[in-house]
From TrEMBL:
Compositionally biased residues, Polar residues: 186-195, 203-212
Domain of life: Eukaryota
Chain segments carrying region Disordered: 177-230
Organism: Knufia peltigerae
Record-given protein name: Uncharacterized protein
């Protein structure tokens, strides 16, 4: 699958945008894949990202109002960081595994707003993770710039988890923990090596298999044989990109096209997603 870029996702129906002086939340399973902001020129970008969701903020040095108040910029920064924290606190269930990134402006190699940067860093340390700081170069009015200049977006449907891009370069990855898929569907993440739908054995086959030398007995637990993880059927809706939207535990989840594999059982073709232990109709 091609690596996403600003130009490739800016007009996509899978993209949600947010603007200057806004704080946004996006749950990736609700039909959108990307959260995008543009025109960061001199602004701060703050991104809290998990494999499930993101809270992101685009904060300017000055809100553009109250020009007679010399503290307007600082007051606005405090207000937006409180809004950022409130969004996180109200959506904590989606952030059991996360990281944060601070995106800052640089002008001739230096950050022009060190006091504001230091305040944001103090706030982000409360998340108790080592967070990357990604810079971008401020352009003067009329100075040539690439299309992706001053842009940042989160891709919440990358194969391994979620990725933050700043000016089309990877700034942060948040990989999905090994147990995350099991928690989502209440099943094991270890795919069965058996056929998808093993046919029932005849009595003769069962007898012969029981007499096979060196045959290992099935593991038993509490007097019962250990069961193999089973695939679960779900209805799905195909999106324009080939991804399929399914409902898992009353939540809509978008599963990318590359995660579905074609299989056949009893002459019937199906699509199988081993990651979620699901199957659906083609």
């Amino acid at each position: 699958m091609a690596v996403p870029t600003y130009n490739s996702i800016k007009n996509s129906p899978l993209t949600q945008t947010f603007g200057m002086n806004e704080v946004a939340f996006l749950l990736f399973s609700e039909g959108k894949r990307y959260l995008l902001t543009v025109a960061l020129n001199s602004c701060f970008g703050i991104f809290l990202v998990s494999p499930e969701a993101t809270v992101s903020a685009h904060i300017p040095p000055h809100p553009g109002t109250n020009f007679t108040d010399p503290q307007a910029g600082d007051k606005n920064l405090i207000s937006k960081m409180r809004e950022f924290a409130a969004q996180y606190n109200s959506k904590k269930e989606y952030f059991s595994h996360y990281n944060v990134c601070l995106v800052i402006a640089k002008f001739h190699g230096k950050n022009p707003l060190p006091d504001k940067k230091a305040f944001i860093e103090r706030c982000l340390r409360k998340f108790k993770v080592e967070f990357p700081i990604q810079d971008y170069e401020v352009k003067a009015p009329g100075e040539p710039r690439r299309d992706e200049h001053g842009t940042a977006f989160v891709d919440g449907m990358a194969t391994s988890g979620a990725i933050l891009y700043v000016e089309d370069k990877i700034a942060m990855r948040v990989k999905r923990p090994p147990s995350a898929d099991a928690e989502r569907v209440g099943s094991t993440t270890v795919p069965s090596s058996n056929p998808i739908f093993p046919r029932e054995q005849s009595s003769d086959q069962q007898k012969s298999s029981g007499d096979t030398p060196n045959r290992r007995p099935a593991k038993e637990k509490d007097g019962q044989k250990e069961s193999k993880p089973q695939l679960r059927y779900v209805k799905s809706t195909k999106s324009d990109t080939g991804a399929r939207i399914v409902t898992i535990d009353e939540r809509k989840v978008m599963i990318q096209a590359e995660e579905w594999k074609t299989a056949e059982t009893n002459g019937r073709k199906i699509l199988v997603c081993q990651r979620y232990m699901l199957y659906t109709d083609p």
